[in-house]
Automatic annotation (TrEMBL):
Coiled-coil regions, chain positions: none
InterPro entries reported in the protein's UniProt record: YwqG-like_sf (IPR035948)
Region spans: Disordered: 27-46, 90-116, 276-297
Biased composition (Basic and acidic residues): 90-109
SUPFAM superfamilies referenced in this protein's UniProt entry, alphabetically: Hypothetical protein YwqG
Descriptive protein name: DUF1963 domain-containing protein
Length: 328
């Protein structure tokens, strides 16, 4: 099923034509629960990984103060919650069986040793053919993203590993992919297939030229429109387009080589917020009489900080230059 972002309440370029040259496309990925394979684009799916290539391991220092869980216990916990809520009618008490209650209590009480070595976890796989705003090195056609699902000293979020490869060269696919034993539970993505959709974005308002920002602010007051929340940058996982800086002030993202970095990917905690402005038309269908867990707006169940996003920047000069992260 395709996913379609609803039209914006107003076309900002019709109201302020001088913003038109700043229009830039992004690809909303629209992850939804599914069973992706190694030849599919996915979040939380298996990677097309050569059997002879070592799987990445994190060597960065970790913060050991989070909520550590065993990965298999977290998967079990999610299955239990999803099944029990799935047979709970809205407005009624949760339909957990006594056995489920006991098992959840046991899983919640389980402790995990944070000093376990950290194998990286597959987070996303993006084939160029599926994501129009993705640009890769010559010949490469798939981007693989892994992360160490722990908080790291320097940024308080997972450490990412980006791998570009030529899918045709992978003939002997690694059958059983390594996984970390212990992780912070918010960093386990549910397996999702993608429904990419290209969309036009406009700059974060601090970067609007001249006095345009002030004029848009004045127009917001008189018209009731909200440039930042509804007219500029899309919610949810996406590739390309503009970055938001609503948690900190804008910070220069400059590569060690001196180049201004570009936004590669937004990893978001939810696909749309409570206003539902960014909820695709296809997801607005009638809700079931039963609870949905996870909710439609949080298909991956990844949570960044307190419901923020992780923004991944890369250097336009070389794919070999290290990426940088921002949490907003
Ligand atoms: Zn790590
Ligand atoms: Zn660079």
């Amino acid at each position: 099923m395709t996913r379609t972002t609803p039209p914006r309440p107003v076309d900002i370029a019709a109201v302020f034509p001088e913003i038109a040259p700043f229009a830039r496309t992004a690809t909303r990925l629209h992850p939804r629960p599914g069973t992706p394979g190694v030849r599919d684009s996915s979040v939380g799916g298996p990677l097309l990984w050569p059997s002879g290539e070592p799987w990445p391991v994190c060597t960065e220092p970790h913060e050991n103060e989070g909520d550590f869980v065993r990965l298999d216990a977290e998967r079990r916990r999610r299955r239990l919650l999803s099944a029990a809520w799935g047979r709970t009618r809205r407005g009624e008490r949760s339909a957990f069986t006594p056995e489920e209650h006991d098992e959840l209590r046991r899983l919640d009480g389980e402790t995990a040793d944070p000093d376990t070595p950290t194998t990286m976890l597959a987070v996303a796989q993006l084939y160029l053919r599926d994501v129009p705003d993705l640009v890769g090195p010559p010949g490469a056609d798939v981007l693989q993203i892994l992360w160490c699902p722990r908080d790291h000293d320097y940024i308080h979020c997972p450490a990412l590993e980006l791998r570009w490869r030529r899918s045709a060269e992978v003939t002997d696919v690694l059958a059983e992919q390594p996984e970390p034993e212990v992780m912070e539970y918010e960093y386990l993505p549910n397996p999702c297939v993608l429904h990419p959709e290209q969309f036009v974005e406009y700059p974060y308002d601090d970067f609007l030229p001249g006095d345009l920002r002030e004029r848009i602010r004045a127009w917001e007051k008189s018209s009731g429109n909200r440039y930042f929340y509804e007219l500029s940058i899309a919610d949810g996982w996406k590739v390309g387009g503009y970055a938001a800086w609503n948690l900190t002030d804008p910070m220069p993202m400059v590569c060690d080589c001196g180049a201004d970095m570009e936004l590669l990917l937004r990893i978001d905690s939810s696909e749309w917020d409570g206003t539902q402005s960014w909820r695709p038309i296809e997801d607005a269908g009638p809700e079931s009489e039963f609870h949905e867990h996870p909710s439609r707006s949080t298909p991956t169940e990844i949570v960044i900080g307190r419901g923020y996003s992780l923004w991944v920047f890369t250097c336009p000069i070389s794919f070999d230059h290290p990426h940088r992260l921002s949490m907003q």
